[in-house]
């Protein structure tokens, strides 16, 4: 069985940032999702914009967008990227109950934007928690994962 060389490890076994200098620049797209589960009354307070800290979803959207732009500052081996587009969307889900978060990120570059999309979802969820924690401390952040990615040498990926 052929072992794949770990691209984030050098010959001495030390962590390193991957050299993407020789890679072709292509359009890169990634979509990630996640959930924050809460009591129905907390969800209703968010929906009715009655959380004392302010408009929870607007603040969470701005936080997610900002986080995507700063991913390389938080994840040590990520490349800094010029992002063309970032979208953070929220859907209320009575069955959770809670909020489903979807982040989409696009760039034209030599490396993908999966980490940026995952970071946007994560920070959006953490911001919702922070904004509503005075109401409920038992909220749970869960199921953060990549839904799809497009572009690059490895091709397209869809998480079934």
Q: Helical element count? A: 4
- Category by helix and strand content: alpha+beta
Strand content: 25-35%
State the CATH topology: Alpha-Beta Plaits
The CATH superfamily title: Molybdopterin cofactor biosynthesis C (MoaC) domain
Total E-strand runs: 5
Report the CATH architecture. Answer: 2-Layer Sandwich
N- and C-termini, Cα separation: 27 Å
Helix content: 25-40%
In the CATH scheme, the class would be Alpha Beta
Notes on the structure:
- There is one protein chain.
- This protein has 160 residues and is an alpha+beta fold.
- It has a single domain (26-149), classed as Molybdopterin cofactor biosynthesis C (MoaC) domain (Alpha-Beta Plaits, 2-Layer Sandwich).
- The chain is built from four helices and five strands.
- Helices cover 28% and strands 29% of the residues.
- A five-stranded antiparallel β-sheet has the order 2-3-1-4-5.
- α2 (56-69) runs antiparallel to α4.
Write a brief structural summary.
Helices cover 28% and strands 29% of the residues.
């Amino acid at each position: 069985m052929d072992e794949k060389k770990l691209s984030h490890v050098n010959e001495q076994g030390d962590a390193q940032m991957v050299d993407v200098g020789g890679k072709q620049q292509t359009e890169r797209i990634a979509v990630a999702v996640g959930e924050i589960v809460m009591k129905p009354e907390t969800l209703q307070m968010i929906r009715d914009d009655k959380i004392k800290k302010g408009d929870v979803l607007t603040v969470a959207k701005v936080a997610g967008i900002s986080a995507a732009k700063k991913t390389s500052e938080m994840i040590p081996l990520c490349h800094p990227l010029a992002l063309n587009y970032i979208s953070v969307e929220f859907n209320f889900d009575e069955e959770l109950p809670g909020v489903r978060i979807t982040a989409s990120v696009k760039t034209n570059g030599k490396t993908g934007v999966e980490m940026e999309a995952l970071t946007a979802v994560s920070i959006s969820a953490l911001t919702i928690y922070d904004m509503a924690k005075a109401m409920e401390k038992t909220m749970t952040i869960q199921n953060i994962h990549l839904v799809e990615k497009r572009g690059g040498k490895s091709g397209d990926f869809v998480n079934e």
